[in-house]
Amino acid sequence: MPALYYVNVTIHVLAAMLWLGGMFFLAVVGAPALRAIESPALRRQLFQELGLRFRSVGWWAIGTLIVTGIVNLYYRGWLRWDGVFASPAFWRTPVGHSLALKLSAVTAMVAVSAIHDFWIGPLAGRVAPTSPRALALRRWAALLARANAILGIIVVIAAVQLARGV
Fold first, then answer.
1. CA 156, CA 5: separation in Å to the nearest integer?
2. Where are the alpha helices (DSSP H) in the chain?
3. Are residues 24 and 149 in contact, defined by beta-carbon separation less than 8 angstroms?
4. Positive or negative: CA dihedral 15, 62, 25, 98
5. Which of 46, 48, 137, 158 could form a disulfide with 102 if both were Cys (CB 3.0 to 4.6 A apart)?
6. Angle at which helices 40-76 and 3-25 pack, to 10 degrees?
7. Are 55 and 2 in contact (CB under 8 A)?
8. How high is the mean pLDDT in each 10-residue block of the chain (166 residues)?
9. Residue 55 CB neighbours (<10 A)
10. Are 130 and 73 in contact (CB under 8 A)?
């Protein structure tokens, strides 16, 4: 493989670490620490600030992952319609299963992130912090974040299978 392939894979892995690591950090460290803050207004402000900052970084990472992922497919020879995408035989192999799992989980993660970041999150930030509507929206946001964490683990498992040749 050419050196540019390894550079591309490195950038891909770093972007994945940034996106997934950031989500796990917020879930395991950030959110519990913020929940301990007594003032609902301050807690809300801090959640919003962290969310907005991570959203910018996260979507930059997602864009990087999509571009480097496509380049990785090209270097692996999997970006050809005639040889891979239109081949039912490829998708029945262990590598095909792992690639399908990874692509499906990534697509789901991007969709869940978009719903969380551009719909539920902003809506939760606009309602009164102690209202029943705010509580329901925060529950939805937490559920979407947990779903993304599970999808992230699935992506990592599929990526390890692909890297190890299944």
1. 19
2. 3-25, 31-35, 40-76, 88-91, 94-115, 121-126, 132-163
3. yes
4. negative
5. 158
6. 160
7. no
8. 94 96 90 88 86 92 96 90 82 94 96 94 82 89 91 94 86
9. 16
10. no
Contacts of 133 (CB under 8 A, 6+ apart): 127
DSSP state of 49: H
Residues 18 and 61: beta-carbon distance below 8 Å: yes
Q: Are 61 and 113 in contact (CB under 8 A)?
A: no
Structure tokens at 127: 């309602």
pTM: 0.86
pLDDT at 151: 95
Structure tokens at 73: 């497919």
pLDDT score at 157: 96
